């Protein structure tokens, strides 16, 4: 089989884990900072393993031969990254976006219309431990689908198939959009509430009424967007994730504990803006958004 060249932007939790799964010298990790002196490690099944990849800085030259570029960055980094990629990434290179919220859907598709773009949804339990290592708490699923068809995507397709085959629960879908919105619903409940209450996912069962109120507000917006869903099924999906990831610390709470910016502007803000457009009331989401932005401003200053 042809060894397709795959690039990953940065070594965050998801990027590190995909790099580990590929375990290939044809994997390139791109950094906008300096090149680390030592190969980074990841902890999987209680085993510490060095990541096998070529680490390079982003440039038109280093991106030239990449078939697929994986972008597992925080949504607030999109603008700066896109500005860089517009001048360095060949049209023939496909992209796989892995991030929370829906801001990236428009960010990448509008700015890079000639590129083939895939969207991925990961439920792997990943976190950075107190020693600074990325650690896998538990395997989830990786679902990938196409959101934009661009030029010469054949090599990108093969690279996507490789990633799916290497993941323990990798899967392709012909229609990723409903899954994007279902994940947005889950994120809209779990991320803000765990941030506010500083609790693990499973403890949200204590706040069942608030969870239900947020679910209804989000689904009311989805109805106006003509998204096809089942109230009962999607509501249950939220509680299923709360239960199955009970011991996990949400990404937004991890951001708070690390004093980093959150992705609240990619999760709640688009929903609140859409709700205003459709004259749908979202008092709980608005309160959460304001509280999170206030707390975020306090620890970021």
Automatic annotation (TrEMBL):
<dbReference type="GO" id="GO:0050661">
    <property type="term" value="F:NADP binding"/>
</dbReference>
<feature type="domain" description="Ketopantoate reductase C-terminal">
    <location>
        <begin position="175"/>
        <end position="294"/>
    </location>
</feature>
<dbReference type="GO" id="GO:0015940">
    <property type="term" value="P:pantothenate biosynthetic process"/>
</dbReference>
<dbReference type="InterPro" id="IPR013752">
    <property type="entry name" value="KPA_reductase"/>
</dbReference>
<keyword id="KW-0560">Oxidoreductase</keyword>
<protein>
    <recommendedName>
        <fullName>2-dehydropantoate 2-reductase</fullName>
        <ecNumber>1.1.1.169</ecNumber>
    </recommendedName>
</protein>
<keyword id="KW-0521">NADP</keyword>
<dbReference type="InterPro" id="IPR003710">
    <property type="entry name" value="ApbA"/>
</dbReference>
<dbReference type="InterPro" id="IPR036291">
    <property type="entry name" value="NAD(P)-bd_dom_sf"/>
</dbReference>
<dbReference type="Pfam" id="PF08546">
    <property type="entry name" value="ApbA_C"/>
</dbReference>
<dbReference type="InterPro" id="IPR013328">
    <property type="entry name" value="6PGD_dom2"/>
</dbReference>
<comment type="function">
    <text>Catalyzes the NADPH-dependent reduction of ketopantoate into pantoic acid.</text>
</comment>
<dbReference type="GO" id="GO:0008677">
    <property type="term" value="F:2-dehydropantoate 2-reductase activity"/>
</dbReference>
<dbReference type="InterPro" id="IPR013332">
    <property type="entry name" value="KPR_N"/>
</dbReference>
<dbReference type="InterPro" id="IPR008927">
    <property type="entry name" value="6-PGluconate_DH-like_C_sf"/>
</dbReference>
<dbReference type="GO" id="GO:0005737">
    <property type="term" value="C:cytoplasm"/>
</dbReference>
<dbReference type="Pfam" id="PF02558">
    <property type="entry name" value="ApbA"/>
</dbReference>
<keyword id="KW-0566">Pantothenate biosynthesis</keyword>
<dbReference type="InterPro" id="IPR050838">
    <property type="entry name" value="Ketopantoate_reductase"/>
</dbReference>
<comment type="pathway">
    <text>Cofactor biosynthesis; (R)-pantothenate biosynthesis; (R)-pantoate from 3-methyl-2-oxobutanoate: step 2/2.</text>
</comment>
<comment type="similarity">
    <text>Belongs to the ketopantoate reductase family.</text>
</comment>
<feature type="domain" description="Ketopantoate reductase N-terminal">
    <location>
        <begin position="6"/>
        <end position="147"/>
    </location>
</feature>
């Amino acid at each position: 089989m042809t060894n397709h060249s795959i690039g990953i932007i940065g070594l965050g939790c998801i990027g590190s884990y995909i790099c580990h799964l590929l375990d290939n010298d044809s994997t390139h990790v791109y950094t906008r900072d300096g090149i680390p002196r030592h190969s980074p490690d990841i902890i999987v099944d209680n085993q510490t393993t060095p990541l096998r990849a070529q680490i390079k800085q982003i440039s038109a030259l280093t991106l030239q031969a990449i078939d697929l570029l994986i972008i597992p960055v925080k949504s607030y980094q999109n603008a700066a990254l896109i500005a860089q990629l517009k001048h360095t990434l060949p049209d023939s290179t496909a992209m796989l976006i892995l991030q929370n919220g829906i801001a990236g859907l428009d960010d990448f598709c509008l700015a890079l219309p000639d590129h083939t773009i895939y969207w991925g949804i990961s439920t792997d339990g990943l976190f950075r431990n107190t020693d600074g290592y990325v650690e896998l708490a538990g395997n989830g699923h990786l679902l990938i689908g196409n959101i934009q068809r661009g030029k010469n995507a054949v090599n990108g397709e093969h690279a996507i198939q490789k990633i799916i085959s290497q993941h323990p629960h990798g899967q392709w879908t012909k229609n990723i959009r409903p899954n994007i919105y279902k994940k947005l619903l889950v994120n809209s409940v779990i991320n803000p509430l765990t941030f506010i209450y500083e609790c693990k996912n499973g403890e949200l069962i204590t706040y069942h009424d608030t969870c239900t109120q947020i679910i209804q507000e989000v689904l009311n917006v989805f109805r106006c967007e003509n998204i096809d869903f089942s109230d009962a099924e999607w509501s249950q999906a939220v509680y299923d994730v709360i239960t199955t990831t009970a011991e996990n610390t949400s990404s937004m709470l991890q951001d708070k504990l690390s004093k980093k910016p959150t992705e609240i502007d990619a999760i709640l803000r688009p929903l609140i803006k859409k709700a205003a457009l459709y004259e749908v009331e979202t008092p709980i989401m608005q309160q959460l958004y304001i509280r999170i932005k206030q707390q975020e401003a306090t620890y970021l200053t």
